[in-house]
Amino acid sequence: MGRRGVTRAVRDGALLVVGDVITDVVARHRGPLAPGTDTAAAIRTVPGGAGANVACWAARWGGAEVRLLGRVGRDAAAWHERELAACGVRPLLVVDEGAPTGTVICLVDEGAAAERTFLTDSGASLRLDPGDWSDALLDGVARLHLSGYLLFTEPSRAFVAVALAAARARGVPVSLDPASAGFLAELGADRFRALVDGVDVLLPSRDEACLLTGSSDAVEAAALLSRHVPLVVAKLGAEGALLARSGAVYARVPAVPATPRDTTGAGDAFTGAFLASLLAGAGPERAAAQGCGAGARAVETIGGRPPSSA
């Protein structure tokens, strides 16, 4: 269990993560794909999903209870429940009788950057709707985290609106990770900002921050976003993280050196450790340092979940 120096004085209350639970098929290859013929690869099927990954890293990194609400197909529901529980997460999975569990094919180039390309079939994961919400889900919850993938379908957008209103009524702080620059480009920056009104912490990647602001500079982008959200934590990979409030970047947190094998889930690891650290009583800068530590562990691991020794 890797708490990495965070104080053990865990605050009362659980972390509730709401988001996607996905089956990842990870294919690691070296060099460019060969169109029309075979490309040698090492292929594994592992549990994934941005929301589920965040929950697993938070549970492994911190000491608070972590719960995950997500929607899966009956085909893989029992497997995902077991895998989440093995990471210390309390699964609250809705079984969808009309759609299979979402699947992502992750193509990972084993070159120096270990860059990855995703082919995504969201399946049941984005079919959460307001009927899946109950205010009782917030009982005993100190923080609510929403996966940004929930913003990319109408039913789950309606779910987000209901969950945000319920959290605001109870005074529960809410964080959100924008999740995907590709989907954000389709959604549009203005619509995104309207949908996340009421979020306390935004955790975008560099690409997401720049796309949402139209700026090519990560510092400027984080500063601009912090005019709309009280705290922005921009994840910059090998360059660490930026923290911004009230229209200005106020802290830079360095990355932890790592030798990347697979960058899948590195941002989720950062987010999970960051949130666990906040629940443990850390301030945002200390929590971001913990996030960088988890991100470094993640890129040295195949798949998006923490290794058993994390």
Task: Give the secondary structure arrangement, pairings included.
Elements lengths: L13 E5 L3 E8 L12 E7 L1 H12 L4 E8 L3 H10 L2 E8 L5 E8 L6 E6 L19 E7 L6 H17 L3 E4 L3 H7 L1 H7 L5 E2 L3 H8 L4 H8 L5 E5 L5 E5 L2 E6 L12 H14 L4 H16 L11
Parallel strand pairs: 1-4, 1-8, 2-6, 4-5, 8-9, 9-10, 10-11
Antiparallel strand pairs: 2-3, 6-7, 11-12, 12-13
Helix pairs in contact: 1-8, 6-7, 8-9
Brief synopsis:
The protein has nine helices and 13 strands. It is of the alpha/beta class and 310 residues long. A nine-stranded mixed sheet has the order 5-4-1-8-9-10-11-12-13, sandwiched between helices.
Number of helical segments with 4 or more residues: 9
Molecular shape: globular
Q: CATH superfamily, please?
A: Ribokinase
Mean pLDDT: 90
- Roughly how many Å is the radius of gyration? 18 Å
How are the strands of the largest sheet arranged?
A: 5-4-1-8-9-10-11-12-13
Describe this structure in words.
The chain has 310 residues and is α/β, with parallel strands linked by helices. It has a single domain, classed as 3-Layer(aba) Sandwich (UDP-N-acetylmuramoyl-L-alanine:D-glutamate ligase), CATH 3.40.1190.20. Helix content is 32%, strand content 25%. It is built from 9 helices and 13 strands. It has helices at residues 50-61, 77-86, 154-170, 181-187, 189-195, 206-213, 218-225, 266-279, 284-299, and strands spanning 14-18, 22-29, 42-48, 66-73, 89-96, 102-109, 116-121, 141-147, 174-177, 201-202, 231-235, 241-245, 248-253. It has a 9-stranded mixed beta sheet with strand order 5-4-1-8-9-10-11-12-13, sandwiched between helices. Strands 3-2-6-7 form a 4-stranded mixed beta sheet. Strand 6 (102-109) and strand 7 form a beta hairpin. The protein starts with 13 loop residues before the first strand and ends in an 11-residue tail after the last helix. The model is unreliable at 1-10 (pLDDT under 50). Residues 15-307 form the Carbohydrate kinase PfkB domain. It comes from Streptomyces calvus.
